[in-house]
Amino acid sequence: QVQLVESGGGLVQPGGSLRLSCAASGRTSDINAMGWYRQAPGKQRELVASISSGGSTNYADSVKGRFTISADNAKNTVYLQMNSLKPEDTAVYYCAAGRFIATTYTYNHWGQGTQVTVSS
Questions:
Q1: How far apart are CA 113 and CA 97, in angstroms?
Q2: pLDDT at 27 over 90
């Protein structure tokens, strides 16, 4: 089993920045990809960004140019740097871990989520 612990959420004003972190522990040999999803009230959970252990990344169109995903493989930790935040970025952000094979990410481990609120 893989355990994921997120940190870094909070309240920020529009235009501000936050950095989320997610540390994986346990059977980390089972994973080679990590990512972030988010779920706003009344909406479905959606992918924000993914990164493989080889450095391949992908982003939701809504966050391209504003968010950056990165990873420290030695620490089994993934980060999400969020800049130019907008009120519509408000959501619970979930860390995910799984496998990246060919062009497909498959996530089967999830964190508890961290709240990000963008409001003046």
A1: 13
A2: yes
